[in-house]
Request: fold
Amino acid sequence: MLADSCTTPWNIKVGSELVYVEQITGGTYGSDLVYVSLTDTPCCLSNIRDFARGVGARRNVLGVSRGGRRKWEIYALPRGALLDKIVLRASFMNSGTAIFYLCRMTDGAVTCCEVDLASGECVEALRDALCMATAENVVKEWWRYGVVARVDYIKSVMRGCGVEPIFVGERLRELFHDANLALLTSLVIDTPQGRAISLGEKIARVAELWVLARVLDVIGARALQQWWLVEQTMNNELAVEDRFGRRFTIVYQGTIKPHILKMLTGGEEHTTPDIVVLAGELRDLSYGALGELARRGVRPHLVIEVKTGPELAEWRGLSA
Amino acid sequence: MEGVERMMRQVRSHVEELRPEHVALVALCGEDCGKISRLLPPGVRYVSEQVLGGYLREVFRL
Reply:
């Protein structure tokens, strides 16, 4: 727990006979998820939706976003249902920043204290407490891929080249800042499908950047810049020199077509190659620059597509 | 199979639009991925994690 971080939660209200718990679902941006420890397995946290069903509580949907992704729901539980239970609130700001709270109900009041997410022990304890989620196959894939070790390798190779990667976007930043926390923020998503998509995306980003790091490692790259913004679709180039002094420009998930074309086609066929290596040092590549370079006859030296198991779950149909 | 077809379409489109000298599909999904190698468009090399280093040394003539 963080010192002086205990507050009354906005979304858990104690009435004379009932306790009202609000939950906002839908990904990890702007959601507020509530988990409760189960009676028979105290270390095991269950989403309020399942917990409420178990105690025969009412659920009302207060609102649904356009497209149906985000839901505001409220649960009316018997007043005693949360007594002596540990309640976990996983609150995500609109920027994606995660704040976790552990809450207790005593004498008709609920107090939530912020969890220190910088503590590896706290993160691991919470991860293990989401015991049903941690048993899922996609989580096994996370460990099978050795995501944490790969993240360390990526950062080590990039720094060894002399470039400091700046990961743009909260989930990407979190993944490379603390991969264990990234696993937790996926596991806390309230549906198996949501968890699988989130983890599959994170595994894919790590796999792509691991392959990019392998390229840097194998050619003995030395960066020609101090910083590199790691950001999908923005064509932020990484210029390097190999051990023979040959220069290359690397683009991660760069765009081929101009933005206007993407809007006109709805983006359906507007895909991004994972890694493009161009001979020479190219600077200030704009959105869609890869297509423009191709029209000027600049052929990439190498294009790499990276695929991982979770991404290819559908491919398993091939074995049929 | 829809996912496979979409992926192949993407790879084909990248090859047609960029006309790279070398194209690889690096698959980090064990044996399951091996089954897709036969579906790759012409000119696209299937590269497993185990042979990635050798492939890169070949492409960069190291």
Notes: The interface with chain B takes residues 145, 207, 210-211, 214-215, 218-219, 242, 256, 269, 271, 273, 276, 290-291, 294, 299-309, 311-319 of chain A (CB under 8 Å). Residues 136-319 of chain A form one domain.
